[in-house]
Amino acid sequence: MNDTEPIVLVDDNEDDIVLTRRALERNQIENPLVIARDGAEALELLLGANGETVKPAMILLDLKLPKVDGLSVLKRLREDTRTSLIPIVVLTSSKQDQDVIAGYALHANSYIHKPVDFDQFSEAIRQIGQYWLHLNEAPPAAA
Prior knowledge:
Blueprint: E1 7-10, H1 14-26, E2 33-36, H2 39-47, E3 58-61, H3 70-79, E4 88-92, H4 97-105, E5 110-113, H5 118-135
Helix pairs in contact: 1-5, 2-3
């Protein structure tokens, strides 16, 4: 991965958006951050009806979203060949077992409970970025 591919953050909570942006900056993760504030906006951004779509390095997906919930977004993204191999990290406040099970059943690459403390949140973002943007071997673009 390179630093020019965006990270798509799908989250409707403005505080979480600000915290994520700060954590990325704090950890010198330079990928552009593209925000989708609801599930419908995420699907349009990533699957677009007009053919114009974002090709992200990874997607950070909250589950509790307006319009289209996060699990439905995950399901749709995994069903589409254009997005089926993009790393999707569920980053949510939900610790409910059924959400964790459903996330993995729908092929999320990772499920992370959002830490409440900013330092812990920042460390989680650092580890996510280190793994998915630098250590992980992404499939070739033609895949």
